[in-house]
Design brief:
Elements (H helix, E strand, L loop, with lengths): L3 H9 L8 E3 L7 H8 L9 H12 L5 H15 L4 H15 L5 H10 L5 H4 L3 E3 L8 H23 L7 E2 L2 E2 L11 E4 L6 E4 L9 E6 L2 E6 L10 H13 L17 H11 L3 H12 L3 E5 L10 H10 L17 E6 L4 E5 L6 H17 L14 E2 L6 H20 E8 L5 H5 L4 H17 L5 E6 L8 E5 L3 H10 L6 H23 L5 H14 L10 H6 L4 E5 L7 E3 L8 E7 L4 E8 L7 H21 L6
Parallel strand pairs: 1-6, 7-9, 9-10, 14-16, 16-18
Antiparallel strand pairs: 2-11, 2-17, 3-4, 5-6, 7-8, 8-12, 10-11, 13-19, 14-15, 18-19
Coenzyme A binds next to helix 13, helix 16, strand 14, helix 18 and strand 16.
C-alpha cells in the first residue's frame, strides 16, 4: 500500500511534491480517516472579478490615493476580457480540477520550504503553558514522564484514527495535519528544504528523543509487547538520562538547526558526512517527538514570568542558556524547565497551531488526571546516547550558529500579557464576534500609536477543504479605518462611534466567513502569480506594483489560536518594523503575546501590549456608556 501522501500524489498528479515531502512506503491509515477526507470539498478558485474588486477595497485603507488610482488602472488591465488575468485564471481552474487542492503543494513550498530565513523566530511558533507547580529536578522529570505518556495517549488516537473530527461553523474540517505532526522532521537543503514523515512507514518509530545539557538520547517509549511505557517507567528512564548528562561543557550541536536555511543546509551536508553523525541525526529526525529538559533560565519577577517563558519556548534564551538544547527542525519539541516552566515549540511546515493546541489540551488534561503510583519494574535498558563527531569544520559551524542565534535573541522583544478584565463574554454580550472585536482593538491600538492603518494579516482556516491550510483575513478595512479614525475624535458622538464599531466588527466577521469559505483574495492572488511564473514569460504588472508590496508588508501579523488550556502561542514579527500578535480568548480573560524587533526604533512590544489593553478597555467602556436604547 502507498502512504497517504504518495497516494494523494499518485491520484492527483502532484509528482512535484515528491521532492518536498519524502513519503515512506506502506500506510497503516485505512478506512475511517480516508472516508472522512474523501467527503471533504475541494478548495474553490474564487472568481477573478471578485478578487480584483476586493483587492482594490483592501488597498484603500493602507495605500495613498495616487497609488490606489495607479493600482486600479493595473487591475482594470489585468482583468479585462481576454486579458492576462483570464488566461491565468483558466490555468488555475485547470490545476484545481487536476489536484486535490490547487494550493496546498504551492503553499508548503512558498510559505515554508523555500523560505530561507531561520525557522527560529521567523517561522516556528512557541506555546507557553501555565507554570507548573514544581521547582526541582524531580518535579521536572515527573512532569516530563506524565507529558510523554499523555502525548502517547494522543498518538494512540491518531494511530487508531479516532481523533475526534473538528468542526468550524458547523462544517467538518480536514484532519490531515493531525497525521503530520508526530514522527516528522524538516530537513535542510541548499536551496529548498524537505519534510520527512515516518508515521506511516513500514517500521514506524517507537522512540522519542530527549535532550538535556545539549546531549541527545534515544528513549524507546514502547515495551516489547507494544504497550507504551508507564509513567513510572518513563520517569526511571529520564532519571538515567539526566544522570548520564550531567556535564555541561558539551558542544551545543542542536544550535546548528537555528541557522539561515542555506547555511544550515551546507553545514548539514558536512555534518552527516560522518557516519556516526548521520546515524544520530537520523535518529532525531525519525523520533516521534522531542523532549527538551531545560537548564534553569534567569529568574524574573512573577509579572515577567510569561514573557520570559515565551522566549524560552521561541528560541531557548541564547547559546548560554537553552538554544542548544533543541533540534529546531523537529516538528514537535516539548520544553520543560526545572522551575515549572513548560511549553513547546513546533516547526510550522506540517501544520497550523490548532491541531498542536488540541494535542496540548489532551496532554494537559492527561497530566492532571494521572496519579503516579510507583511500582517495581523489570529494569529497562539504558537509553542510547547519540554521539556526534565534532570535526573542526563542524565546530566552526557551531560557533557561527551560536553568534547568529545570540544576535537574533537580542533582537527579539516579547511581551505576554493576561488581559484579565474580560474575555469572549463582553463582545458576546454585545452581540459581537469576540475575534472581530479583538481585531478591531488591534486596529485601534496601531492607529493610536502610528496615526495610520497598516496591512494586517489574520490567519483564517481553510480546513473546511481537503488538505486546506490558511488564507488571510485582512483586518484593516474601509470600515475599520472609519472606526479607528473616529474613536478618539471628541467631536463625534458616542452613538456614532458605537455604530462605526459595530459596522467594523460586522465587516471583519463577514471577511472571516468569506475567507474560511475559500473566497478571500490573498491565496488566489498568490496562485495567479505562481501560475504566471509557470505560464508566462513576464510577470503581470499588478504583482510588481507598490500596492502589492504594501499589501504584503504585514506590520501586524496576527492569529487567534484558541485552546481549552490557559496557554498562549507566540511568534515573531514577519517584517522588520512589525508586530507578531497571537491570542487565546478564554471566557473571562484573554492571553496575548506581542513580539517586535529591538533593532526597529519604531516598534516596542510592551507599548503595543499596553495600547491593546487600553483599546479593549476603551471599547468596552464606550459600549457600556452608550445604552442600546440610545443607538
Ligand atoms: N454574537 C454573539 N456571539 C458570537 C457572535 C455574535 N455576533 N459572533 C461569534 N460569536 C461566538 C461564536 O458563536 C463562538 O462561540 P463559542 O465561544 O461558544 O465557540 C465565539 O463567539 C467565537 O467566535 P468568533 O470570535 O467570531 O471566532 P471564531 O471562533 O469563529 O474564530 C477564526 C475566527 C478566524 C479565528 C477562525 O475562523 C479560524 O479560522 N481559526 C483558525 C486560525 C488558525 O489557523 N490559526 C493558526 C495559525 S498558526
Amino acid at each position: 500500500m502507498l502512504s497517504i501522501l504518495a497516494r494523494t500524489m499518485a491520484k492527483t498528479g502532484m509528482e512535484k511534491s515528491c521532492c518536498l515531502v519524502k513519503p515512506v512506503s506502506v500506510t497503516r491509515i485505512t478506512g475511517r480517516y480516508l472516508a472522512h477526507q474523501e467527503g471533504l470539498p475541494h478548495l474553490p478558485v474564487p472568481p477573478l472579478q471578485q478578487t480584483c474588486q476586493r483587492f482594490i477595497m483592501a488597498m484603500e485603507p493602507i495605500v495613498d490615493k495616487e497609488e490606489l488610482s495607479h493600482t486600479k488602472e493595473l487591475i482594470a488591465e489585468f482583468q479585462k476580457p481576454g486579458g492576462v488575468g483570464e488566461r491565468l485564471q483558466r490555468s488555475l481552474e485547470r490545476r484545481a480540477q487536476k489536484t486535490e487542492n490547487w494550493l496546498s503543494d504551492w503553499w508548503l513550498k512558498t510559505a515554508y520550504l523555500d523560505y530561507r530565513m531561520p525557522v527560529v523566530i521567523h517561522s516556528s511558533p512557541g506555546v507557553v503553558l501555565p507554570r507548573m507547580e514544581f521547582n526541582d529536578r524531580q518535579g521536572q522529570m515527573r512532569f516530563a514522564a506524565k507529558l510523554i505518556a499523555g502525548v502517547l495517549d494522543f498518538k494512540a488516537m491518531i494511530d487508531n484514527e479516532t481523533v475526534p473530527v473538528e468542526y468550524l461553523g458547523g462544517k467538518p474540517l480536514c484532519m490531515h495535519q493531525y497525521y503530520q505532526i508526530l514522527s516528522s522532521c524538516r530537513i535542510p537543503g541548499l536551496k529548498q528544504d524537505t519534510v520527512v514523515n515516518h508515521a506511516q512507514s513500514s517500521r514506524p518509530p517507537t522512540h522519542i528523543t530527549v535532550v538535556h545539557n545539549f546531549q541527545f538520547f534515544v528513549l524507546d517509549v514502547y515495551n516489547s509487547d507494544g504497550t507504551p511505557l508507564t509513567v513510572d517507567q518513563l520517569y526511571g528512564q529520564l532519571e538515567k538520562i539526566w544522570n548520564s548528562s550531567l556535564q555541561t561543557n558539551k558542544e551545543p550541536i542542536g544550535i546548528l538547526t537555528s541557522q539561515h536555511r542555506n547555511t544550515w543546509g551546507k553545514a548539514y551536508n558536512n555534518l552527516i558526512k560522518e557516519k556516526t553523525n548521520k546515524d544520530s541525526v537520523r535518529a532525531i529526525q525519525k523520533s516521534i517527538f522531542t523532549v527538551c529538559l531545560d537548564a534553569p533560565m534567569p529568574r524574573v519577577s512573577d509579572e515577567m514570568y510569561h514573557s520570559r517563558a515565551a522566549v524560552q519556548m521561541i528560541h531557548g534564551g541564547g547559546s548560554r542558556w537553552n538554544s542548544g538544547n533543541r533540534w529546531f527542525d523537529k516538528t514537535l519539541q516539548f520544553v520543560i524547565g526545572e522551575d515549572g516552566s513548560c511549553g513547546l515549540i513546533y516547526e510550522h511546515a506540517p501544520a497550523e497551531g490548532p491541531p498542536i493546541v488540541s494535542l496540548i489540551d489532551h496532554v494537559v488534561e492527561y497530566t492532571k488526571t494521572f496519579e503516579m503510583i510507583r511500582t517495581p519494574m523489570v529494569p529497562l535498558p539504558m537509553p542510547k546516547k547519540l554521539r556526534f563527531n565534532i570535526t573542526p569544520e563542524v565546530k566552526k559551524d557551531i560557533e557561527k550558529a551560536k553568534q547568529n542565534m545570540n544576535i537574533m535573541v537580542h533582537d527579539l522583544d516579547v511581551k505576554v500579557i493576561v488581559f484579565s478584565h474580560f474575555g469572549k463574554n463582553v463582545p458576546k454580550a454585545h452581540s459581537m464576534s469576540p475575534d472581530a472585536f479583538i481585531q478591531m482593538a488591534l486596529q485601534l491600538s496601531y492607529y493610536r500609536m502610528y496615526k495610520r492603518c497598516c496591512a494586517t494579516y489574520e490567519s483564517a482556516s481553510l480546513r473546511m477543504f481537503k488538505l486546506g491550510r490558511t488564507d488571510t483575513i485582512r483586518s484593516a478595512s474601509i470600515d475599520s479605518a472609519n472606526f479607528v479614525k473616529a474613536f478618539d475624535e471628541p467631536a463625534r458622538q458616542n452613538t456614532e462611534k458605537v455604530a462605526l464599531m459595530e459596522k467594523a466588527v460586522k465587516a471583519h466577521r463577514a471577511y472571516t466567513n468569506m475567507a474560511i469559505q475559500g473566497q478571500a483574495i490573498d491565496r488566489h492572488l498568490l496562485g495567479l502569480k505562481l501560475q504566471a511564473i509557470e505560464d508566462l514569460a513576464s510577470m503581470p504588472e499588478i504583482f510588481m506594483d507598490t500596492s502589492y508590496a504594501v499589501a504584503l508588508h504585514y506590520n501586524l501579523s496576527t492569529s487567534q489560536v484558541p485552546a481549552k488550556t490557559d496557554c498562549v502561542m507566540c511568534f515573531g514579527p514577519v517584517v522588520p518594523d512589525g508586530y507578531g500578535v497571537c491570542y487565546n480568548p478564554m471566557a473571562n480573560h484573554i492571553n496575548f503575546s506581542v513580539s517586535a524587533f529591538n533593532s526597529c526604533n519604531e516598534t516596542n512590544a510592551a507599548r503595543m501590549a499596553k495600547a491593546l489593553e487600553d483599546a479593549l478597555l476603551d471599547m468596552q467602556s464606550l459600549l457600556e456608556q452608550t445604552p442600546k436604547a440610545k443607538l
